[in-house]
Prior knowledge:
By secondary structure, the chain is α/β, with parallel strands linked by helices.
Amino acid sequence: MARTVQEIKKEMTDRWMSETIIREKYELQEGASFDSAFSIVSIESILFYVFAFSIWTLEALFDYHKKEVNDLVDELKPHSLRWYVSKAKAFLLGKALVAGSDLYDTTGMTDEQIAAGKIVKYAAAVEKSAVVYLKIAKEAAGEPGTLSVDELEGFTAYVKEVKDAGVIVEIVNEPAEHFRLQMTVYYNPMVLNNTGQDFSGVYPVTDTIKRFIKELPFNGEYQNVKLVDELQKIEGVVIPELQLAETSRDGQAWEAVEAKATPYSGYYKVYDENDLILTFVPYETVSN
Length: 288
């Protein structure tokens, strides 16, 4: 891991200050530090900073290169779930694979054309009962969304070509699962009112819940405690008491969340304002 510029500079200046000839030439007192002897805008300090910054840049580049190589090696490992995710995101709509391979010939295509053709923006692979479930989604209006019938047909044909022989791959291309909750919020009346609105007209509790659900990683695990932790950061919220959180694949049959849950489709969404049943109660301090 690259050292900081300050660490590199200090190591250089400590060694420099330890030289007898330097102390004699600059008439430095024994034990004097570089920072006490030289101003930050002195030519010596500036030169050491330039040298330290150059070394830091080189070390940072080596770190980046190492990470890039490790990531590439991990992605190229066949039979790994990460490999399936990488292949899903490499799908190019409207482009055929090179015969006998799992790669595309993109000669003559611009970077913009390639980026536009890679419609699978979100992907996750999980294995259950010897079946690889490949969850996918494209991006629509800044949010995950399902592939169209034609897009899914092309992607399915692509997966059959690139998957490992003998491996059963089940493609999951479903809309966001429904999320709803019931909560009592004890609030400070000096900051919020009984509808959860602050005095600038914003509804911070409702907005935070929606943002929390929206920003979960694709196929990431939702946890009740983490949502409560996030709500506790809001000014004016004293106690966010979660009574019930539920999820549903179709908006009809609901299942209670017992501490945590992972969406089958890969992502959740609050479809309706009525799905957030929030009761706001003013918090009163009991004095003895």
